[in-house]
Amino acid sequence: MNQAPKIRLYVTDLFAAGYNIILEQAPSHYLAHVMRAKEGDAVAVFNGQEGEWLASVASISKKAVTLQLQHILSKHKASPDLWLAFAPIKNKVDVVVEKAVELGVSKLLPVYTRHAVVKSVNMDKVTSYAVEAAEQCGRHDVPAIEEVKDIPTLLGNWPKDRILLFADESGKGADLKTLLPSLPAGKYGILVGPEGGFSDDERKALAIASQVKAFCMGPRILRADTASIAALACVQAWLGDWEERPNFVAHFETTGT
Amino acid sequence: MNQAPKIRLYVTDLFAAGYNIILEQAPSHYLAHVMRAKEGDAVAVFNGQEGEWLASVASISKKAVTLQLQHILSKHKASPDLWLAFAPIKNKVDVVVEKAVELGVSKLLPVYTRHAVVKSVNMDKVTSYAVEAAEQCGRHDVPAIEEVKDIPTLLGNWPKDRILLFADESGKGADLKTLLPSLPAGKYGILVGPEGGFSDDERKALAIASQVKAFCMGPRILRADTASIAALACVQAWLGDWEERPNFVAHFETTGT
Predict the structure, then answer these.
(1) Order of strands across the sheet with A42-46?
(2) Which of B179, B213, B220, B232 to mutate: most A Cβ within 10 Å?
(3) What region does A91 belong to: left with phi over 0, alpha with psi -120 to 50, or beta?
(4) What confidence tens digit (pLDDT) does each residue in A203-254 have?
(5) Same domain? B145 vs B228
(6) Domain that holds residue A17
(7) Does the residue B151 lie in any domain?
(8) ipTM confidence score
(9) Are B35 and B146 in a shared domain?
């Protein structure tokens, strides 16, 4: 039980030592049949509010796997307060969600835009991509996921105290290299448009919204998924938590570096 | 002929007004059958050295499409001198190559590492991903692509005057936020490891190589493809050409922004 568990699961139960968690069908199947877990095996669990806990497999039945909570492994750490508003792209929603979660986004806001090819989003799928990425990347929470909104609704609901960094494909925005170091710590969101760009109406609405700051990512045309990942990386490096170090360094301690 | 062509093709021919280019089988098929081009249609072409030229479809036969070169559209601009050394990941080589090309990498160096799952790379496929991404993103060149090397060979051949920024998953590297603004303009490469991390031997070789500077991308575990894209974005934003603006702004001129 001293070794760090290799399996991490997101659960919605609250935690207390000795309590049992009856897993739902998908994680039960994953544990029993994909990972071939046995009774007594260690599993790490997180619920988005109480850090990461050690649990052990208490029983495996045809219906469900039950875990028993042991003790806390690491104190809860919320992901940085950074939102990503993105126009879903055909066959790429999984990529954007997976990468955004790994890069530590706290809320995903799919936006419907005039020129978007994808007009609806399967929320169950988006949630499952987000949970899987959160389990894999070691974070203690799963980002909130909003229903799809159009640009006027997004801007109408956008908090007054949160800057919306807008990836402006027209090239008229600020350099990230100049913009990011000039911004204070605080609440941010990033908006990345669809492959066809924004419509004139949408661009006008963005131009007059007081929270919006446009930026540019250089001379090449980035696909929408590339743009989301690239913008998130730069914003996390400068305004997020990239000064913190991973908490899984134990197995590197013996190397020569 | 005044409109910017919607189709961009990479060719290996040299350019001169009036010359004909007989396209190979794949681009011929693409033009004739996917894009349903007709004689007289405009196509933009680039060859990696002479900028972007306007050509028109001169003839379409069963065997090949022939283009006739008209005149230069934009002067040649080389991509920034930034290399990416990456451990190829199962089913993700296309993603890494596509994103790296969009983000303006000048050379791709697949590396074989001890813990890598993928032990060989289909060079033809890597080349075709790179060409397609270069055509799509508007750059004037296709990155050079080296044969797969192991870490000792990569380091043994690494130029003395090129800094190798190493994405160190152990968390011991510098913050990008501190490191990047401290570095002068110059020649750089990025090294991103495989999903299993580097072996002790590989880490020792990296630790003693004088050109290597390790950096860290925060507390979460990034997948290898996410790490490549994220690192490239930050390095291009700070040391690359992201202060330049896209040269395709014409259709945004009428918007209100």
Answers:
(1) A8-10, A42-46, A52-60, A65-74, A20-22
(2) B220
(3) left
(4) 999 999 999 999 999 999 999 999 999 999 999 999 999 999 986 643 333 3
(5) yes
(6) 8-74
(7) yes
(8) 0.93
(9) no
